[in-house]
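Cast an eye over this sequence plus tokens and walk me through the fold:

***
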Amino acid sequence: MTGAALLNVLLLALVALACVWLVTEPLRARTPDDPDEAERARLGAERDRLYAELAALSDESRRPDLERRAALALRGLDALPPAPQGRSGTRTLALGLLGGAALLTAVGAVTFVPRWQLASLSANEAENVQAVLKLPGLKAQAERSGTKEAYLAWGKAAFDSNTFDQAVTAYGNALKLDPRQPEALRRLGILLLTRGEQTGQAISAEDAQRAALLIRTGAQLAPQEPESQLLLGFALARFGEDQAALAALERYRTLDPKGRDADDLITALRARLNTSDPGLRVYAASCASCHGPGGGGGTGPSLRASTLTRAALAQVITQGKGAMPAYPDLKPADLDALLTLLEGWQQEGR
């Protein structure tokens, strides 16, 4: 058991002991005697009997006498001092609180504490931790059932938690059951292609071609799935097919407008492909990371939807505005080329 886990167990134990001590304190205290218990019971019974007679009364001539006697019983009860707190009621309340504390402690052990631990992590780190926690159960279920769905669930959790050896095994078994499963194909392909980064060993040309074939096949089988285009773009860029890689990655951004996994690579590809166009070169190097690879917007606004004049654009670029940094050192020729590009995008629109 790790130090953090041991600390959590001790914390829960202390909370449980404190709850037990507090809620059982009434049980340890002696309930005082009630010297007026007999009179209180007599008057209460008298009151209840008179109320019952009044409710079932058929002879209205008796009502004044019954109401007078009921009022006397109520006055007698009010004149008695308050009764000491009954032990039976306290015991019931204390036992109820004790049960509630035990339930909350048990629930907290499996919900609050894990969430509290995950709260300190980023969203991706938290998802990875949760995926790792699920792995043993998903692996056991897949090996027990032997179904494609179970192997895919195990493979996804392993892939998302960077447990790549298990991902290879799980997806490999899924492909034995369905050789045309797109997720298994593309993810096995990218794992094979990047194996050198994981192991420090260079990948052979044969394995690289096999990996590319797996990724291409997965993309052909599921062209509308964003990950298909994303992994295809990464693979094509590794083989130097920049134009095809850029097309795949732009397709990925179309399928998943919120996806940011390819931004850096798109910027790099645009810079390599547009060295002959100074405007695109400057844009790719300085603007694309915020405004998107095609000017359609990202963390920054869309430049295609901008209505700023050329002079206003030049002022914002060189002096900055709000979260927009300034680029005062741009060469006049580069600034002029960038402004011409942006004006062209404004005319094209979104």
